[in-house]
Design goal:
2 strands; mainly alpha; transcription; 2 domains; globular; Arc Repressor Mutant, subunit A; two-stranded antiparallel sheet; Four Helix Bundle (Hemerythrin (Met), subunit A); GntR family transcriptional regulator; 11 helices; 68% helix
Length: 218
Amino acid sequence: MTLAVGSRPTLVRQVIDQLREQVASGQWPVGARIPTEPRLVEALGVGRNTVREAVRALVHAGVLECRQGSGTYVISSDEMSGAVTRRLAAARTAEAVEVRRAFEVEAARLAALRRTKKDLAALDGALADREAAWRSGRVSAFVEADAALHIVIVAAAHNAMLAELYASFDAAMRATIAEGVGGELHPDRYVDHTRLVDAIRAGDPDRAAAEAGAFLEV
């Protein structure tokens, strides 16, 4: 993976192409956290600033996203999906909620039809994590746990294109969750997702779709 020595602009372009290939090949799938900067420097054999510029370019393109205190994640498989991400980031909350509804209602319906035992175990774990995050009283923890549950539901739909499109919507989705709960976790803002998971477990697509859409009215 070490790159040939060349001029700085050329090296940056080579690193961008190498990182893009890691994403396109599926080695770093959408939703994955990429290696840390020191590990990339070691693997590529280039300077820290070169790696930093290449990562910054892919963040600007909407392929990667830096999350404070967590790392850098793949949010789309290419620049076209990244353009979708940037457009959604600029959307009004009502528009973003409508897009969430379009994705999540169909995902819940498909999940009820296609979920496996492994999916159900993942759903139970994600639901338990969401409940624990709510009890913790920390907004950031709840937003992450709520988002994680919805990602698991989409995964249970077993539609690769839907999963990729939903991943490109990740930042906007999290923003709608954060806005929905506000600055503090209050009981009157709590939305129970147990019935949604139960409908998926029961294999009832109509009920799962209805439950998924019920808390996304605009």
